[in-house]
Amino acid sequence: MAAPRQRLAQAGLVAVALLAGCGSSPAPPHGGALRLALPLVPQQLDPARAPDLPSLNVSHELYAGLTRFSGSGVVPDLASSWDVERDGLVWTFHLRKGLRWSDDRPITAQDVRRSWLRALAPGTKAPFAGPMLGIVKGARGYHATGRGDVGVQAVDDRTLRVTLQHPIPWLDQLVAHPIAFPVSTRNAYSGPFRLASRSPSRLVLERNFYYWNVHKVKPAKLVLTAEAKGADAILPRGTAAPGLPWIETARPPSGPGWTALPTLSVHLLWLITHRPALADPVVRADVASIVGDSGLDVLVPDAMPGRSTITAGLVPTVPARSTGQNLTLGYTTQDPEGEATALQLSRDLARRGFSVTPRAFASLPALVAAPGLDLVLLGWSAKVFDEYNIFDLFPCGSAFNVAHWCDPSYDALMRRTVRTLNPSARHRLEQQLLDKLRRSVPAVPVSGQTESVHLSPGVRGFSWSPIGFYELDGMTRS
């Protein structure tokens, strides 16, 4: 029998009244222009096709989703609320009344459905369609072939019903990723800003008066370039999108005016368990004790909700002293800290009898495909605010399981965890998952990662979510 309907969210924000069909809009709030420096100027602003974090962040300012990342979770955006039925299998999103594109046409649930099918269509070549929308019933088949039924239904203009392959607790987070944003067929925008002009080196965004929450939007104009000199703010420099393998691509800046920002990225040293040198978990535990005093506790980033619950009461494991081994450690030169980290790890391990030979690779794919490595430096950036997304690296069949470690009991516990909607109950299961990883040691956290932002004097209102998305609509100069 279906579970009772559970109302998960109600709009906590005041909607802006738009006069439908007459082209009028509310009086704009006061605000000037801001000049912001990006790590690169995006050439692709389609939220379905955006390939990197700067492109996703700019499309996130031009388009709105059903929900929007805010701090350590999501808030309602185009959807004012949503219901979860059948123990998490069916989600129903209720769109706000009076939503309009920037050309004053209505935004409907049909727009959302059409845009999801477009993102999943093979010809769109959307890089994140599979990871973000693949949980929808029929989505994987449609993504591969362009045919078949997909579990997304526009019940009416303001109601979208989504049926999943199996229950998950965080569909409200997945639909906050730009891949799930509705896209107009007429070059119109639904987010806080609209595109005013563009060139290969510069984007100009202006306030979208038809955004449902336009009174929150403070800048009248944003000028986005890659030139830091004279900028009102230098935005985070990372380019890797959440939900994929991660390496540091820019050295963290330091000095006056820079602020460190939390992330959900963790830098990992993978121990290739099928290699003879590391097949014994005692040897892996010895490596772990050298690399990090806290074992795998920091596999869960500080900014992740539930971390204190999951890591509470874990007893540090004390490995038996193993015989030193000859190991080969791979890293990529795309990581500016990769060589320094590899050399430091080599020195630390050498003091305990291991002999480590670092090997540099020109690219991430070359590193992952290289044979003969015992250790690999490769991190991960979570796509949802739940530890499960990091633990999902380690099942037997995971394409990202660099260690080639396999424990069927771990996989069975993962299947229970992803179907557990109650956060407290899910965190208790995740504590068991963390304990299994600490005992088997397929990977060791090397460090947690931060991003950085630089604000000029008088500039304020920048908002950051550790998932990797920032907000520019509240920025202003005093």
Set out the fold topology.
Elements: E1 6-9, E2 33-37, H1 53-62, E3 67-70, E4 73-76, E5 79-85, E6 90-95, H2 109-120, H3 129-133, H4 139-145, E7 152-156, E8 159-163, H5 171-174, E9 193-199, E10 202-207, E11 221-225, E12 233-234, E13 245-246, E14 258-271, H6 281-291, H7 307-311, E15 326-332, H8 338-350, E16 355-361, H9 364-369, E17 375-377, E18 379-381, H10 388-391, H11 408-418, H12 423-440, E19 443-455, E20 459-460, E21 463-464, E22 470-471, E23 476-477
Parallel strand pairs: 2-11, 2-12, 15-16, 15-17
Antiparallel strand pairs: 1-5, 3-4, 5-6, 6-8, 7-8, 9-10, 10-11, 12-19, 13-18, 14-17, 14-18, 14-19, 20-23, 21-22
Helix pairs in contact: 11-12
Gist of the model:
This protein is an alpha+beta fold and 478 residues long. It contains 12 helices and 23 strands.
Question: What does the model show?
Answer:
It is a single chain. It is built from twelve helices and 23 strands. The protein is an alpha+beta fold and 478 residues long. It is globular. Helix content is 22%, strand content 24%.
